[in-house]
Amino acid sequence: MDFLSLFVIVPVLMLVAFLPCKNIKQVRTVAVIGSSVLLILSFVLLFMFLAERNAGNTAEMLFTADYLWYPALNIHYSVGVDGISVVMLLLSSIIVFTGTFASWNINPLPKDFFMWLILLSIGVFGFFISIDLFTMLLFYEVALIPMYLLIGLWGTGRKEYSAMKLTLMLMGGSAFLILGILGIYFNSAADGGALTFNLLEIGKVHIPIEMQRIFFPLTFVGFGVLGAMFPFHTWSPDGHASAPTAVSMLHAGVLMKLGGYGCFRIALSLMPDAAHEQAWIFLLLTGISVVYGAFGAIHQTDLKYINAYSSVSHCGLVLFALLMLNETATTGAIMQMLSHGLMTALFFALIGMIYGRTHTRDIREMQGLMRIMPFLSVCYVIAGLASLGLPGLSGFVAEMTIFVGSFAHDDLFHRILTIVAVSSIVITAVYILRVVGKILYGEVQDKHHLELTDAVWYEKVSVVGLIVCVAAMGCFPGWISDIIRGSLGGLTALFN
Amino acid sequence: MSYTLLILALPILMFLVLGLGGSKMKPAVAGLLGTLGLGVVAICSYAAAYQYFFEIGKVGEVYQKITAYNFEWLTFTDKLHIDLGIMLDPISVMMLVVISTVSLMVHIYSFGYMKGERGFQRYYALLSLFTFSMLGLVVAGNIFQMYIFWELVGVSSYSLIGFYYLKPSAIRASKKAFIVTRFADFFFLVGILLVSYFSGSFDFATLTDSNAEWVRTIGGASFLGISALSWGLMFIFMGGAGKSAMLPFHIWLPDAMEGPTPVSALIHAATMVVAGVFLVARLFPIYVFGAPEVLTIISYVGAITALFAAVVACTQTDIKRVLAFSTISQIAYMITALGVSGYGGHDGLGYMASMFHLFTHAFFKALLFLGAGAVIHAVHSNEMADMGGLKKYLPITHITFLIACLAIAGIPPFSGFFSKDEILVAAFHHDKIVFCILYFVAGLTAFYMFRLYYRIFWGENEKHYHHEPHEGGLNVMTFPLIFLGLLTLVTGFIPFSEFITSDGAAFHTHIDWLIAPLSVGVGVVGIAIATILYRKHNEKPDKIAVSLNGFYVAVSRKFYFDEVWLFVTKKVIFNNISRPIAWFDRHVIDGFMNMWAYVSNWTSSKIKGIQSGVTQDYSWAFIVGALVIVVLSVWALLV
Fold first, then answer.
1. ipTM (interface predicted TM)
2. Residue B186: which of A230, A385, A423 has the nearest Cβ?
């Protein structure tokens, strides 16, 4: 029994514990206990990881465990973490924890809702701890499927359409991905030895460049769909707009990070030569994402659409930075994943809470909320400021690391693209302040809104928890950046 | 010098305490707490200034940069890392004194001005945040720390302009201020990226070292025929132009007057708006040695802005807007002074004059704004038309306002005379065209300031006020006026060139007997014209306005800059970029995805008829299939 598998076992135990639950109180109890345990586990893991590293353990992956699962194809259940997975696990457990509080009054069928949600988080946690490609893919699919039901059953608006669209598009991505992974698998033993799915072992062999040229784009696009890369991002606005609060949080906060993480860990790390050759194509696409998403957000009127387009822009920056193929930009990309995960979860939580009160997400129908719900409004402003990159909050450090890293190229192409990406900070300010000015400030227009109340305790737990994380990362970014940078040492082929 | 850490720690602490717990405190307690905190900060700043200038700053004959505190905050690469810390040198210490003094006065004044306002605690919390950001900006030892606090300053300014968040005009103004300065900050950031890439450092020590290796290597890199260093420094200046409201980024500042008046005094007159001047001054050596052509551009941007703003100020009727345009004009003066300056000794006169003017201007402009605040507080209006004859109701305000007007008009012995004179001398020796513009602006300044003064305090004694305006002797609102008035009287006599020079070494300045009478003369002429036109209410000003017709309208509409910006944002960005993108996304990109779904659906519905469930159909298919196979096999055998 190894420590990392607890991240999968605890949610499984939660699923079992949900079964006998009779009412919403019991469901909540199980959910809160379970997600707290996960949160504690991820902090324990962080400290264990730091202790190991300080003790001088320089192994690429720590806390590894390996069980042969399907010998015929040499598939293992094989786990291990480096600094990047540790921080991603931390992010996931924070979002699951706060998401639990954000769906306190989910209706109908709370038990089923939480079961699907926890199943989804099994996929997420499993993906981040795995170092076997096949197992990763398995967990990846586990994370995608519950989304269909969660949106289709508990969503709002055109939920069936959105659920179908989201699932089909992501499944389309998976199809590419499976091809890519099989391609890697069948080239994982250059000298005719045993084929393997193990990331570490594949990292040691050199996949022939002709094969890389074919399978790199497949893998990258496969994960890129989930990372909302232009032009495969359109599932995101519809999906997020229809999803219930906690699902939006988990999806934008964590699931989209699976895309970035996969691009980095599988596509880029395993096939660096093709990455160098083809990076420019994807740089153009992701560069478009960054600016296009931001401009797209300006024109939206639905709060969730605004945020979804903003996510396209911010997640575009993640892939953009990864493709810059240097250490600083990659560090920035991972930090941006964390930062975007936290603040977008915060946004969706707040939007859910506002929607739960006003029953509208149309910014034209709300005004003067600051007067009625000061707590939620101030938090919304803070989330907005984090999103537009205010120093002291998480967005700033991540974006600056990306920009400094991306600009460190000698050629004009990379530099001009970087400047184009930097311009997104202005556009972001435009759409954030537009929303804030429109819905929070001014006099209350709708008389019914005057009777609305401010946040209650469980909502505050969720929101304050996320704000503390956003501020902590923004004020003390050094240790996170060091953990991430410490895990990039082995990637010399990628960063030459 | 570890007590300097308090200068930063206290304001941020106050912000957190008042911001988180303010709603549970009584307003007076919150205000007192904030003011006390700032009092300590001011004392620390004075102590630091004394210690720096008279005890430890000077090594040999030259003032050195002293790092009082420093730690590595975020590492990018081995060479590039953001440090946070406190660096003391002549200009940062001077700024500490200016900021903490003005901020303290504003804290005290606000007790009276903001009394009974909703959100009193929030107001003090935001003032503390602003003071923290501004102090952090000036003590920055590297350009990235400066950028960090630069952004924080922007946000605190945003929230203070929008303090009255129920007022649509305040919401619009705050949004405008933030976005316009953010747009300029984009250039600033690109400039930082560019310069730091070549220099391999964010440190001012490296960046301003004109002998450094990187200045030579960057010379080779160029883009569109202009060296990379010039591009970088130009971009950085554009960032500064945003905060300092230079053309064409000035449009946010007049609107920023929507904030409470004490805020205008602190942020939009004395401290934040000089950040751009401070930025150029901070990087001055590299501007001089690395890109003198950029410095020439800077001097012209400054001169044109000074002229533009002074002309517009003559036509405004909102007293805070007049002051706002006068601020733009005066800051442009400082920028121009940097532009016409050389380096070292007397060549660096412009640099020293710029800093001197920054110093004196901060006090008399804060005084003008606080005085305007007192007037607005008394008559509940910003419009000149609602004022007149106030000198008998508001005697203290009147006298102090007059002192400030004389100072800005450049009349000796008030502080503005000395600093403005130095700027004119520097311009005269460097560039005659710039000098002529500045000289004309000096006259205009005297004119519009006295237009303002007469229309507030003179004329129409019979004017009827609903509530008789009063100020009530010495109190929290008049004390800052008197204190700043005294400062305006004495600060001009500080031998500035002994302390703050471009290279840190002292030199002697004296009054230039060629320029000084000329500049006083033009000031007196300006005042005289204003006296004739505005001392008593008469028809002359209107007649002149009518005779100028189209020009007058253009000026009073501020040369249509706002309209142009509005056109760009609303029409171009919102309607011609954002809307098509949103449409394209929904209909083309997403339409493509939907088309796939549609095509699959359609194909499936077309071919589903094959699975009809009718046995005869299946047997037909079976027979045809079998025949095809037979034919193919036979054909294969034969060929």
1. 0.91
2. A423
